[in-house]
């Protein structure tokens, strides 16, 4: 325990050094990591740990997506990658039984993510498993003053998105990685400590410096795992979720707040097929119904914590009744379908198909097919995405509200951008842990992620207040989005990931 | 600082107010830059060939022409000077320091060099180390900004610079990575290497020729270093009005990217002149491209616009002419 503390202390010392250091490849540095030097002297390991180019900490959807993306590019597929994740099932060929009802943990993948997954070669595996495309979406709220319908044909596409179980996303990417030429090693352990020393010269070390020497001279980062192994890598990628160890060990600060809301997710069944994504904003939070295929749908219901624990524990029949109520006429009336005003056609522009669509009621839920899971919701954003020899992707860099299904899509976009930056760096002969390369990745993703977070947070705040004029404002927003076709096209295009920034893009 | 004759006309101009102390040693001109950082006088001793740092060596018999530069001989500089130099030796690799424009331009030049040389040597551009087994020389390597990425692309790189300090810095930095520690750095000149009879598959002289006394002779040396059918890459600044406005007025006076006096407009060469002197040196120019700076994104882009910064790629003719 003491050793862990010492290492933590030493890593804190390193962190402050990293924070103060500007991102430039300085030749000389003040070396004040005396604490860490002592701890390494104590740990008398005589053999070198394995050396990798990239260590991906976190084998979730986004971490494996990064590995798959690197494996699919000719410039990067020769790299040596380590994946560090505690999950013992990772790496084993897990065959997903098709007969089971869908897992409640699903994600909506946008068309931009679908093309990324096609590039990495994972999409063909996803199509073999259960997945559900949807081409229509309806959004409304409890006040009954307005609704918006979206249709993929509005932007001349076939689909608005696809709903896939998380474990399918993860295992299909892993299959890609395992079949590729990428040299990969999976470490089933947790990250305990991470260290990086300032750069110094390698003179006097001979032809082939040992891994420990390279680490002591700042060329490699050292990762200490929970099973006692040490792994060395040129670049450490933190893909370990919203409570990222890597982010903490690198000393990267975050801003954010907890939403006083929890989300309940579960799988439900209908009597008819569902091809539409439904979302209704209720006074305490939105409820979303997403098709998964085979007459199953996924429910994501956001509400305050007390209600959430009540609804989690109430019996099934009551729960189903509550769900149907929430989706249908509970809390408020249905919005009326008003015909589009012809006099405003100059404003509405080329009228899209969905403008003429009437308001529809979601299909009734008949059975609960899985356990109900509850998660607290929060917003978190890392101040920096990169640090010396560290890059953050996915939820470790940004955590968002699930109300627009964007979370993992931002993560996939991060993985895509980072692998692109690494490929460019290798093409131009840069060391992959170098600051300039990583900063290019940050400059590409940070503005886009922050913009999306601002939009989602704004929507969340706007819908959490029940106040007459605000309700009217929201109704106006619904009407605007529904009838003003150029605006609707823009919204669809932004939510589909085709456009990185909401404006000026 | 310490000058001995022959003194550059430029240096004379800039340092006319300074008291010249006697010293037998001529310092490398680039030290003038660093002197500027510490000196309290107002003259910017930046006649230095910053950021390029290369010069042809003047033999002692050569006349002090208006563009002649000082030789850099072995140093017996006093400890203070050595301390100052080693303290600012880092600035070569500081991406925000005085060499920032070069750092910004580096990825763009490397992109052009990589694609051109991959085509020249028929190598696969999507390979991570396409230049394995090829010998390159970086003439006027400075701190090794170009040599290191080329070494990472697999080439066997030799870097030469007439300024000893630069070579030392380059060596120090290259030793920080096992991949680049194989680079051979030498404090010498192209002419000396020609005399030693060395040849290379590709010869690169980026941002050098505008600081050289006799460009035609320099090109002949570059050509002699290239094997027949080898590649030569040269980059410089065009002698155009736009270049005067951007590379001199904007870069040196307004934006202060480069110290004043880094470049002399009259020593710039037009693309036609470059083509001509390379042709006389048995090198046929095959491609030319320009670098354009986008102030909004802060990035350099490759373009067809050769009116300011441009790079020329040529191949050595098979029939050698005697130099």
TrEMBL record, chain A:
| Cofactor(s) the protein requires to work | FAD
Q: What is its main location?
A: mitochondrion
User: Might you give the EC number(s) for this enzyme?
Assistant: 1.14.15.45, 1.14.15.46
Q: What broad class of enzyme is this?
A: oxidoreductase
Where found, per UniProt?
Answer: Mitochondrion inner membrane
* MF terms in GO: monooxygenase activity
Q: Which domain of life is it from?
A: Eukaryota
Q: Which residues form the FAD-binding domain?
A: 53-328, 369-453
Write out the function statement from the record: FAD-dependent monooxygenase required for two non-consecutive steps during ubiquinone biosynthesis. Required for the C5-ring hydroxylation during ubiquinone biosynthesis by catalyzing the hydroxylation of 4-hydroxy-3-(all-trans-polyprenyl)benzoic acid to 3,4-dihydroxy-5-(all-trans-polyprenyl)benzoic acid. Also acts downstream of coq4, for the C1-hydroxylation during ubiquinone biosynthesis by catalyzing the hydroxylation of 2-methoxy-6-(all-trans-polyprenyl)phenol to 2-methoxy-6-(all-trans-polyprenyl)benzene-1,4-diol.
Q: What is this protein's name?
A: Ubiquinone biosynthesis monooxygenase COQ6, mitochondrial
Organism equals: Camelina sativa (False flax)
Q: Which gene encodes it?
A: LOC104789056
TrEMBL record, chain B:
**Known function:** O-methyltransferase required for two non-consecutive steps during ubiquinone biosynthesis. Catalyzes the 2 O-methylation of 3,4-dihydroxy-5-(all-trans-polyprenyl)benzoic acid into 4-hydroxy-3-methoxy-5-(all-trans-polyprenyl)benzoic acid. Also catalyzes the last step of ubiquinone biosynthesis by mediating methylation of 3-demethylubiquinone into ubiquinone. Also able to mediate the methylation of 3-demethylubiquinol into ubiquinol.
Which Gene3D superfamilies does the protein's record reference? Answer: Vaccinia Virus protein VP39
Q: Which organism is it from?
A: Camelina sativa (False flax)
What topology in the membrane does the UniProt record assign?
Peripheral membrane protein
| Residues that hold S-adenosyl-L-methionine according to the record | 109, 140, 161, 206
InterPro entries cross-referenced by the UniProt entry: SAM-dependent_MTases_sf, UbiG_MeTrfase
The protein's required cofactor(s) are namely: Mg(2+)
What this protein is called in its record is: Ubiquinone biosynthesis O-methyltransferase, mitochondrial
Q: Which gene encodes it?
A: LOC104700381
Q: Residues that bind Mg(2+), according to the entry?
A: 207, 210-211
Cross-referenced SUPFAM superfamilies, in alphabetical order?
Answer: S-adenosyl-L-methionine-dependent methyltransferases
């Amino acid at each position: 325990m003491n050793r862990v503390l010492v290492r933590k202390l030493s890593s804190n010392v390193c962190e402050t050094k990293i924070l103060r250091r500007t991102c430039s490849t300085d030749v000389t540095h003040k070396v004040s990591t005396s604490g860490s030097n002592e701890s390494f002297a104590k740990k008398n390991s005589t053999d070198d740990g394995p050396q990798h180019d990239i260590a991906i900490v976190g084998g979730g959807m986004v971490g494996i997506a990064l590995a798959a993306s690197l494996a699919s590019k000719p410039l990067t597929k020769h790299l040596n990658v380590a994946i560090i994740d505690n999950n013992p099932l990772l790496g084993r060929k897990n065959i997903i039984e098709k007969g089971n009802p869908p897992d409640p943990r699903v994600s909506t993948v946008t068309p931009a993510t679908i093309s990324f997954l096609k590039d990495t070669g994972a999409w063909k595996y996803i199509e073999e498993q259960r997945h559900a495309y949807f081409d229509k979406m309806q959004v409304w709220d409890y006040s009954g003053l307005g609704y918006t319908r979206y249709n993929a044909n509005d932007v001349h596409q076939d689909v608005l998105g696809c709903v896939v179980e998380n474990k399918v996303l993860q295992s299909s990417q892993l299959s890609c990685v395992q079949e590729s030429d990428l040299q990969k090693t999976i470490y089933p352990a947790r990250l305990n400590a991470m260290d990086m020393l300032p750069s110094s010269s390698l003179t006097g070390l001979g032809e082939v410096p040992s891994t420990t020497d390279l680490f002591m001279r700042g060329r490699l980062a050292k990762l200490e795992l929970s099973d006692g192994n040490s792994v060395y890598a040129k670049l450490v990628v933190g893909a370990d979720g919203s409570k990222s160890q890597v982010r903490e060990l690198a000393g990267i600060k975050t801003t954010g707040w907890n939403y006083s809301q929890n989300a309940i997710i579960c799988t439900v069944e209908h009597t008819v097929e569902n091809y539409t994504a439904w979302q209704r904003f209720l006074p305490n939070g939105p409820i979303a119904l997403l098709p998964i295929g085979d007459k199953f749908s996924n429910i994501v219901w956001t509400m305050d914590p007390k209600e959430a624990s009540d609804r989690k524990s109430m019996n099934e029949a009551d729960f189903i009744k509550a769900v149907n109520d929430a989706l249908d006429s509970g809390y408020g009336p249905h919005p009326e379908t008003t015909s589009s005003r012809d006099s405003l056609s100059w404003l509405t522009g080329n009228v899209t198909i969905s403008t003429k669509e009437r308001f529809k009621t979601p299909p009734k839920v008949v059975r609960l097919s899985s356990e109900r899971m509850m998660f607290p919701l929060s917003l978190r954003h890392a101040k920096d995405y990169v640090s010396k020899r560290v890059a953050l992707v996915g939820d470790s860099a940004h955590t968002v509200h699930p109300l627009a299904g964007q979370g993992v899509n931002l993560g996939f976009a991060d993985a895509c951008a980072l692998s692109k930056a690494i490929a460019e760096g290798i093409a131009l002969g840069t060391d992959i842990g170098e600051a300039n390369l990583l900063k290019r990745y940050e400059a590409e993703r940070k503005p886009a992620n922050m913009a999306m977070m601002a939009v989602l947070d704004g929507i969340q705040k706007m819908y959490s207040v029940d106040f007459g004029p605000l309700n009217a404002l929201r109704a106006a927003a619904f009407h605007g989005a529904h009838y003003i076709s150029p605006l609707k096209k823009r919204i669809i295009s932004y939510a589909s990931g085709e456009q990185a920034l909401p404006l000026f893009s | 600082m310490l000058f001995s004759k022959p003194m550059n006309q430029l240096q004379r101009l800039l340092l006319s107010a300074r008291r010249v102390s006697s010293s037998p040693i001529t310092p490398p001109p680039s030290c003038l830059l660093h002197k500027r950082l510490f000196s309290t006088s107002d003259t910017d001793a930046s006649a230095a060939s910053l950021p390029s740092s290369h010069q042809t060596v003047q033999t002692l018999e050569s006349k002090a022409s208006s563009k002649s530069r000082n030789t850099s001989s072995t140093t017996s500089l006093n400890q203070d000077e050595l301390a100052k130099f080693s303290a600012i030796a880092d600035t070569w690799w500081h991406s925000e320091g005085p060499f920032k424009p070069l750092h910004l331009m580096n990825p763009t030049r490397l992109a052009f060099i990589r694609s051109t040389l991959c085509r020249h040597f028929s190598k696969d551009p999507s390979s991570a180390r396409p230049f394995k087994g090829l010998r390159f020389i970086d003439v006027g390597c400075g701190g090794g900004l170009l040599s290191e990425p080329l070494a990472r692309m697999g080439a066997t790189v030799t870097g030469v610079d007439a300024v000893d300090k630069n070579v030392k810095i380059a060596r120090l930095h290259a030793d920080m990575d096992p991949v680049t520690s194989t680079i051979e750095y030498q404090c010498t000149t192209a002419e000396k290497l020609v005399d030693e009879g060395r040849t290379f598959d590709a010869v690169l002289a980026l941002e050098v020729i505008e600081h050289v006394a006799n460009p035609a002779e320099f090109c002949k040396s570059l050509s002699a270093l290239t094997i027949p059918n080898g590649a030569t890459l040269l980059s410089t600044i065009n002698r155009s009005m736009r270049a005067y406005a951007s590379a001199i007025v904007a870069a040196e006076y307004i934006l202060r990217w480069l110290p004043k006096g880094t470049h002399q407009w009259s020593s710039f060469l037009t693309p036609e002149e470059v083509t001509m002197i390379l042709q006389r040196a048995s090198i046929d120019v095959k491609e030319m491209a320009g670098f354009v700076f986008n102030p909004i994104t802060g990035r350099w882009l490759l373009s067809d616009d050769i009116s300011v910064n441009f790079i020329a790629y040529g191949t050595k003719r098979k029939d050698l002419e005697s130099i």
